Amino acid sequence: LGLVSLVCVLVALGLLRPDDDDAVYLHRVLVQIQHPFEAWFLSDTLHGLQDLPPLSSAHLLLSYEPVVVGLATILSIDPVIFYHHFGALVSSALLPAIYFAVYVTLGLRTRVALGATVLAMLFLCIDGATHFTFGNFALTRCWQGKVIFVMLGVPWLSLSTILYVRDSRPENLLRLVYLSIGGTGLTTSAVFMMPPLVTAICLAHMLSRRFSRNGFKKMLLANVGVLYGTAVTLLALLLYGHENVHESMVGAGYSMVWWNNLAMVFGSTQAIIVDACVLLILPLLALPIPQARFLLLWVASLLSGIANPIAASLWLHIVPHFV
């Protein structure tokens, strides 16, 4: 597992895929650090004009970039260099361990889980059909808060939710709260990604066993655990307002038709088939029947709550305020 982590670190430090998010999220902090005794800037800083509204007021809640740039300043290291290398080093080193823990928790034997982790890392390295594929939200730009949340936060949250529905001790619920706080600090996208994921896992757990009042209670409490980010973000939007970026998303090439957005991730029908084989069929064949049933229900619950005409259209009107 350590060797896999080392390879991931070398890949992450050796690859570079430029992305607009570097300018959008990092630039504000670089400007702010030059004025350490002034109040936190609430306006846009990227275009050199005063009083321009930010792309989204939700971005003001992010703490990852300020922490990294602040640490670089304390250590007298160039903030841009430190931002790119420190985040990539830490996140890529942790990535195999998180995946391995998820596989073991799902029921794979240690050696099989290690093999599955190697295959998952290989998949992330070669999956690059579009800028939005799973692979391009992993090792190729894993210094960004949003990517760190997708590649580490999502599997870690999945693991913690599974542990909670199996054992509802307070410390397991508290772990969900901590992940909610950390996820919101990494990216505002966590606000709309965490509740559906947690709900899908809880539903899959209930359906794979027997629907009960206790299972429904666990689902409610788990969602309460991750509602921190949503509550704080909504409060920020109420206090500071927000720019309507619906039109800017369309203008930037983001379709408001839900299946077109899925196509941006997978790229083609062939890619969908390959991804389904790698991400679903192979795990189903490797897992014991109860865990395979749980995984299938998990995927079905998640897709039914997101990838359908009604829910997807609703998400597309919510998401632009937080990306």
Briefly characterize the structure:
This protein has 14 helices and no strands. By secondary structure, the protein is an all-alpha fold.
Write the layout of secondary structure elements.
Elements (H helix, E strand, L loop, with lengths): L1 H13 L6 H13 L30 H11 L4 H28 L3 H17 L18 H22 L3 H17 L3 H19 L4 H28 L5 H6 L6 H9 L2 H18 L2 H18 L2 H10 L5
Structure notes:
- With 323 residues, the chain is mainly alpha-helical.
- The chain contains 14 helices and no strands.
- It is globular.
- It starts with a helix and ends in a 5-residue tail after the last helix.
- The mean pLDDT is 81.
What attributes does this structure have?
323 residues, mainly alpha
Percentage of helical residues?
over 70%
Number of helices in the DSSP assignment: 14
Q: How large is the radius of gyration?
A: 20 Å
Average residue-wise pLDDT: 81
Class by alpha and beta content: mainly alpha
H/E element order: HHHHHHHHHHHHHH
Given as residue ranges, the uncertain stretches (5+ residues, pLDDT < 50) are none
Distance between the termini: 33 Å
In terms of DSSP E residues, the strand content is: under 5%
Shape: globular
Largest sheet: none
Task: Say how many strands there are.
Answer: 0
